[in-house]
Amino acid sequence: MPGSSWLMGTLLAFGAIDLIALDAIVGPRALASAKAVEPVAIEPAPPPPVAPAIAASSPAPPIEPRSGSPKPEADDRSPPLRGGRPKPEPPLAADELRPVIVYFATDRAAFDDAAARALDRFATTLAADPRGTVEIVGHADQRGTERHNEELSERRMARVRDYLAAHGVDAARLHGRAAGAREPAQRGAGPAALAANRRTEIRRKP
Q1: End-to-end CA distance of the chain
Q2: Rounded to whole angstroms, how far apart are CA atoms 151 and 109?
Q3: 199 and 99 within one domain
Q4: I need a surface site. Which of 7, 13, 44, 178 has the fewest CB within 10 A?
Q5: CA 96/CA 12 separation, integer angstroms
Q6: Residue 31 domain boundaries
Q7: CA angle 45, 51, 53 (to 5 degrees)
Q8: What CATH number is associated with residue 178?
Q9: Which tens digits make up the pLDDT trace of 173-185?
Q10: From edge to edge, which strands make up the β-sheet containing 133-138?
Q11: Does residue 200 share a domain with residue 110?
Q12: What single string gives the DSSP state of each residue in 98-135?
């Protein structure tokens, strides 16, 4: 039978039964028919598809800071400025503006020891505190001619100026003038008024 011949040929092809066993089962005739049947070639199943290689992912971009957050920056901070704007010096106090007065004998430009001690203290203060300048004004009493009094007050002013400069005060800060008898401390011709007008006033200026 054609169907049995195909079955026997298939069994022989897959080795499910050998020729001796088949001969015993179906007989010589059927076996000859089975040999004549061309075994069916079974193609192997195709291999499963290979999934494409996943490309290496590129590195994730940096996370940007949220709005309002400071962005990181390179450490480019400048060093703090050295010095900077100097602080303004405090103004001179009222007691620092009070004048120092040196008195002189009649028609003299030399001062006594008490005046020298007062100038020493004032020179120490000025040397330690460079604020402002120093005004030195020489005076004379009303006796004598105007020219004489002008020259006398000039000598008195110069004597005090030079003494301060010799005791540590910057000479550039010292400014002097001669007032003669034009600016009396007291009016009158009595001894007290005359003594009060024979003077040199030293005053600090801001």
Answers
A1: 141
A2: 10
A3: yes
A4: 44
A5: 135
A6: 2-36
A7: 145
A8: 3.30.1330.60
A9: 999 999 999 999 9
A10: 100-103, 199-205, 133-138, 174-178
A11: yes
A12: SPEEEE--TT-----HHHHHHHHHHHHHHHH---SEEE
Residue 177 lies in a domain: yes
| Structural domain count of the chain | 2
- Extract the tokens encoding 196: 């009060």
Q: What is the DSSP string of 167-195?
A: TT--GGGEEEEE-TTSS-SS-SSSHHHHH
**108 and 181: one domain?**
yes
pLDDT tens digit string along 40-90? 455 555 665 555 554 445 555 555 555 555 555 555 555 555 656 767 777
For residue 122, which amino acid is it?
Answer: F
How far apart CA 73 and CA 52 sit, in angstroms, is 42
